[in-house]
C-alpha cells in the first residue's frame, strides 16, 4: 500500500480555476463597492447615510 496522494482524492484543476474566478469576481465587486462609497456622492442612494456612519466609526477606531 502507498500513502501518497491518489489521483481520485484531489480536486481536478478545473475546480481550482472556477474557485479562483469566483473569488476574483467577489473581490472585484467588493473593491468597486468600497471605492464607490468613498469617492462618489450618494453611491448607495438611500443607504448612503448608513454606510457613511459605519465608515466614520471604522475610521475612528483605526485613527
Kindly describe this structure.
The protein has 63 residues and is mainly alpha-helical. The protein has two helices and no strands.
Average pLDDT works out at 83
Question: What sort of overall outline do the alpha carbons produce when their principal axes are compared?
Answer: elongated
Distance between the termini: 59 Å
Largest sheet: none
Rg, alpha carbons: 21 Å
Number of helices: 2
Say how many strands there are: 0
**H/E element string?**
HH
Give the uncertain stretches in residue-range form: none
SS-based structural class? mainly alpha
User: Into which percent range does the helicity of residues fall?
Assistant: 55-70%
Oligomerization state: single chain
Strand content: under 5%
Brief write-up:
The chain is mainly α and 63 residues long. The chain contains two helices and no strands.
List the helices and strands and how they pair.
Elements lengths: L12 H27 L8 H15 L1
Features:
2 helices, 63 residues
Amino acid at each position: 500500500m502507498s500513502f501518497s496522494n491518489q489521483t481520485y482524492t484531489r480536486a481536478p484543476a478545473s475546480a481550482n480555476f472556477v474557485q479562483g474566478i469566483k473569488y476574483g469576481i467577489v473581490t472585484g465587486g467588493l473593491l468597486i463597492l468600497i471605492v464607490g462609497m468613498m469617492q462618489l456622492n450618494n453611491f448607495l442612494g438611500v443607504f448612503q447615510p448608513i454606510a457613511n456612519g459605519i465608515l466614520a466609526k471604522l475610521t475612528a477606531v483605526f485613527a
